[in-house]
Amino acid sequence: MHTSLKRFGTLSLSSLLAFSLLAGCGEQHTDSRVPHQSLREQKVRANSVAGAWAGSTAAAAWNKGYYPMADAVQIPESGWRSEEDKQAYKNHNFVLRGHLPGAAPAQGKVDWVTGDALTRPQWGAMKAYESFATDRAVGSRLAVTGARLGRTTIETSRGKATVPAWLFTLDGYSTPLVRVAVVPSELPKSPIGAVPQGASGGLRSLAGLKQTAPDGRSLTVGATHGACDDGPVVNALETEASVVLYASVKNPRNSPCTDVMAERNMTVELRRPLGDRVVLDALTGRPVPFGMPNDPSPTWT
């Protein structure tokens, strides 16, 4: 278990609804029981998840699909010219001051560096714009003055791929804001069901994959914890076909505490590069999604 980026943040309301409250942390309780923690039980569940995915139809579908592992929105190559613009982007605060193309091909081609290819449905310019832009008319705003269809490179579960993308011109910028146009593949149904949070020896929720190291030797994930523990712990079970992450909390305590959930970025070192192995969550039995649903541009959930 390794910790990096000692960064905390209270999750948004939509994120809070996505997770159950941590066991042992409730609204001013006095329960005398301390949440059960068992690394052995967590490993047993991780092994069950890995075993269920090995050779399954879900794994076969995953290996043939298009699943971005990086943000579908790429900021201008020059970076933001001011903190105000950076904040406007984080707040999704844009204004449209030009015309967007009204017609575009309904399908787009994903080309991997391996030579594999896949055709996927493709968003029009307006739908792509609306995926990251909300004109709140309050505070600093970024002005979009037009767009054209081009291509960009993005990291996926199968390695780097070149995909169609909308290139949005921004007032005051010489390079565009890029939004991937093709739609990710539908997630296959997991061959194993989820377990409740806190079950299987104290398993907890993962808040999403944040990044993969360039050499593939480590993963950074968001892990949740509450006010009655010393923070999250994330371990990995590695097999030939998968990396199963199992998260819990350190030193869960029984004491009156507030009904708060926080997120911390955790880096998990791998014994060998990730490659095309699927990253699975022991709690849900599903692939760990990149990003969060309330990010500026979620890829898949």
User: What spatial form do the alpha-carbon principal axes imply?
Assistant: globular
Number of separate strands: 14
Q: Tell me the radius of gyration.
A: 21 Å
Order of helices and strands: EHHHEHEEEHEEEHEEEEEE
N- and C-termini, Cα separation: 25 Å
Report the portion of residues in β strands: 25-35%
Largest sheet: 7 strands, mixed
Uncertain residue segments: 1-34
Give the fraction of residues assigned to helices.
Answer: 10-25%
| Mean of all residue-level pLDDT scores | 84
Helical stretch count? 6
Characterise the protein shown here.
It is a single chain. This protein has 301 residues and is an alpha+beta fold. Helix content is 16%, strand content 33%. It contains six helices and 14 strands. The strands form three sheets. Strands 2, 3, 4, 5, 6, 7 and 8 form a seven-stranded mixed β-sheet that branches. The protein has a four-stranded antiparallel β-sheet with strand order 1-13-10-9, with no helix packed on it. Strands 11-12-14 form a three-stranded mixed β-sheet. The two termini are 25 Å apart.
